[in-house]
């Protein structure tokens, strides 16, 4: 054979047919026409664009609710003059969305769900003070922010602890682990710094595990020495068979 079609290994499974057309006239040459069929499967690219959520909690505020009602009423005044149903529906949908965005705004993403809205407002004021280079206000709001964060974290922990006790009392394992993950932020617990017997602080995780292993081993040895077994201590006066019998009793 004189003619080949070179295909990468990646596309080798995509080849469905390969044949030579001997009847094709290519002039005065020994070459023949070789045709290969490839089947390609193109993967659709998924769009990650999602419309931002509206902050519906703002509707609980009577002032914002009134602003939203007035805004949406003004936009609906012109709908009665439109005869086409499709165009009227499009204007209705756009009017509701634009009124909601302008009146109540979008929901701000929260990395930590336990932070209250009051604390988020303080953080926003702190950001504006930093941009305005208002050092006095920035220092004051920074102290208020830390105080509110400590309060929110304490309230969140107490609520989750109550939920954990309630789930444990009902025997709801699924809810129990869910509240536990929320309480730990989904992160595995890590060992804190410990102090060795000579007074040095150990921060390395492997060294900490070794120190705990030594500590537990010493506790077991001390417990054995404080309450010795007379059958095991008097090994010199026992035969191997009697010693094995004493060990089996343990």
How would you describe this protein?
Helices cover 53% and strands 7% of the residues. It has eight helices and four strands; from the N terminus they run E-E-H-H-H-H-H-E-E-H-H-H. It has helices at residues 62-76, 85-103, 117-131, 135-170, 173-184, 205-226, 230-233, 240-249; strands at residues 15-21, 33-38, 194-195, 201-202. The radius of gyration is 38 Å and the shape is flat.
Detail the topology: elements first, then pairings.
Layout: E1 15-21, E2 33-38, H1 62-76, H2 85-103, H3 117-131, H4 135-170, H5 173-184, E3 194-195, E4 201-202, H6 205-226, H7 230-233, H8 240-249
Helix pairs in contact: 1-2, 3-4, 4-5
Mean pLDDT: 77
Oligomer: single chain
Give the terminus-to-terminus CA distance. Answer: 82 Å
Strand content: 5-15%
SSE string, helices as H and strands as E: EEHHHHHEEHHH
- Rg over CA atoms, rounded to whole Å, is 38 Å
Can you tell me the residue ranges where pLDDT is under 50 for at least 5 consecutive residues? 232-237
Fraction of residues in H or I helices: 40-55%
Largest sheet: 2 strands, antiparallel
Tally of strands: 4
- Sheet with the most strands: spatial strand order: 1-2
By helix and strand content, what is the structural category? mainly alpha
- Taken together, the total number of domains comes to 4
Count up the helices: 8
Shape: flat
